[in-house]
Amino acid sequence: MSSTKHFMEISQEIIASEYHKKIKDAFEVFDHEANNTVDVREIGTIIRSLGCCPSEGELHDLIAEVEEEEPTGYIRFEKFLPVMTEVLLERRYRPIPEDTLLRAFEVLDPSKRGFLTKEELIKYMTEEGEPFSQEEMEEMLSAAIDPESNSIHYKDYIAMMVVDDS
Amino acid sequence: MGCGTSCSTKDRKSEKVFISHGSAALKAALIIQNWYRGYSARLKARQRYALTIFQSIEYADEQGQLQLSKFFSFMLENYTHIHEKDPELVARLFGSTLQDCKDRQEYVSCIDVPDSYNGPRLQFPLTFTDIDILLEAFKQQQILHAHYVLEVLFETKKVLKQMPNFTHVKTSPSKEITICGDLHGKLDDLFLIFYKNGLPSGSNSYIFNGDFVDRGKHSMEILMILFVSFLVYPNDLHLNRGNHEDFMMNLRYGFTKEILHKYKMHGKKILQILEDVYTWLPIGTIIDNEILIIHGGISESTDLNLLHRIERNKMKSVLMPPIPLDEDHDTDLKTKVGATIIPREVKTNGSLSEQLTKHEWEQVINILWSDPRGKRGCYPNKSRGGGCYFGPDITSKVLNKYQLKMLIRSHECKPEGYEICHGGKVVTVFSASNYYEEGSNRGAYIKLCCDMTPRFFQYQVTRTTCSRPLYQRVNAIESSAIRILKERMISRKTALIRAFQLQDHSKSGKLSMAQWAFSMENILGLDLPWRSLSSHLVTTDKNGNINYMSSFQDIHIQKPVKEAQSTLIETLYRYRSDLQIIFNVIDTDHSGLISMEEFRAMWKLFSSHYSIPIDDFQVDELAERMDLNKDGSIDFNEFLKAFYVVHKLDKLSKSDSNLP
């Protein structure tokens, strides 16, 4: 029915327009010189702050889409907006659900001790997957490690982080 | 996908759990890393949002401050109409508070330092030992006696008077110079700088680029250390005036309060002399004829030659622009005012020649208040309400005009303590770490030498020995920022509710996100990411619509008097900082009291200028209730303190932390 289709189109426009504003807000907070550009190194933070969870590889591809033909180190808002709007409309890079996260920790802890040692965590995070930088590793450790046992009790950790993030 | 083979599932007695790196572990690691990066990014974004809130409100406050200057002009123009009985009122406001100012001998000699005084004792002429004595004493939380404070201030003024508007400095291969930005009373940062970089001396030069005072709790200590160091090494320690080296700014931003608190007996004297010392601070420094160091920035009309020539000490305060000199006004003023107004230095007629011209005044304002931006051109600085925003083209134009290579300025808090912009031609350096809140930003200083590239040094003072994890710090900054934002909202509650209701045609108590954000931005005048902040400020229903009244549920302004109307309370709360300044200015003998008549006159003027529709009668009533001992005078500090915001969810209801 054409009126339904019309209605859906308008709703889509309204949604897109709200997304535009949301994206603009997030972008502006990092736009230090108020000239509609941000440092390319902040793009990952901006995209993730909008609720998306691309992997590093996916992020790399996104950046390539929004960069200038001759990369300047800056990303312009005019290029970022349409790409990011699509990402939000298509609901790409959905965040990890809590139980998936828990299962991931459990895979790394097959004997089901309920924790990972500091060394184990460091090894996995810095040697597997898309390795952490030293800074990222230190940051994670500072909040995750229980100083008395020098280990991370992942169930508690996840519960704490999820509350904080919501 | 299969599980990697593992010995541990079979052998639980193994001491070492060994998991071979199969694809399951890889995927698990990817999931955790992905999740963590998302979480960490959101934390950083929250931190950035919080800083944006702090900064917007800070600038909006400054804007309020500058608008106050228009009020003073308005007052001057209208004073004969409002209060014929008290022609001295305006004279007091604009005239000399040093009318009965004795010279130094009288001031200093009539203050004795008792034998029982355990604080630092200075010996004039000052030497480097006095710097050490002061540093040691301040580390032990001691307070310098008013006698010494006044001696230092008088000496400093004497030496500063000899200095030109711009100090010209040369570096050499063996002599670097260190440049520090805003300190804002954060003594720990100064200690840290001296610890890392060494004390000032003949071979270790420093430039302090303004804003030594206000906001932090140790403005006096910083000022004393800087002034004493300056007196010991006048050619190696350079001080530039910042926009907070201004007695009117100090009234709002805390330094006046600090002085009156630490120096209960002699604070007023100190304030009087300080007003004067500020005006003698140089406008800027120029290094090797190449690098310009000023506090704020420039405008497209910046005329360094003019700035070299003006009589800088006539710039009393940003809130006291030159009285307009149009024809009728001039004669009018001169007859009424010329005889009674006694401007700061000269006691005779011709009072109006004791001020800068409007053009000169604006030149100085631009130097002290402007901010660089990426956009080309020069625009009025609408966040602060004074100075301008200048673009890279303006920087190039002005630097080229005077054959300069770089501009180093301060005035803006930067997360990393410094920031380079305009293609490397403008550098911002800010030396107060944790400026808004613990963990909010680093501080930095710059070392320069000859033709070498500037080197940047960063630091962050932490109160606790081990710093807290990032998420705790961000939580702290965030809740602090949200708190002051809520207090802002409640001070405009009536206007906000009216705006919401106008859009709420069905009277449902709900608005769409877009409608809510629109009103918030419009009424509060703050350019913030409202959509992202909404979850902290309001509740939403399951359809994503905003329950706009929910912001006001857990917060209210404490009513000092039960019967007072809420709109009156709200208005008084909102303007409390302005009122405090005005009252302080009227209260020239700093007694803390003003008469009922003065209060009424001031309130009438204020409400008419700001178009505040509050019944005079209500204000009168309120004032009479505040006059607790019924002697016809109001302790205005008590009056204003009575208005504060209660956050219901707090265990302790703390008053607005920004109240000076």
TrEMBL record, chain B:
GO biological process: detection of stimulus involved in sensory perception
EC number(s) reported in the record: 3.1.3.16
Reactions this protein catalyses: O-phospho-L-seryl-[protein] + H2O = L-seryl-[protein] + phosphate; O-phospho-L-threonyl-[protein] + H2O = L-threonyl-[protein] + phosphate
Similarity remark: Belongs to the PPP phosphatase family.
Organismal lineage: Eukaryota, Metazoa, Chordata, Craniata, Vertebrata
Keywords: Calcium, Hydrolase, Magnesium, Manganese, Metal-binding, Protein phosphatase, Repeat
Gene3D superfamilies for the chain: 3.60.21.10, EF-hand
Cofactor dependence: Mn(2+); Mg(2+)
SUPFAM superfamilies for the chain: EF-hand, Metallo-dependent phosphatases
Name this protein carries in UniProt: Serine/threonine-protein phosphatase with EF-hands
Species in which this protein is naturally found: Ailuropoda melanoleuca
Pfam families: EF-hand_7 (PF13499), Metallophos (PF00149), PPP5 (PF08321)
UniProt domain EF-hand: residue ranges: 574-609, 614-649
Source organism superkingdom: Eukaryota
Example GO molecular function: protein serine/threonine phosphatase activity
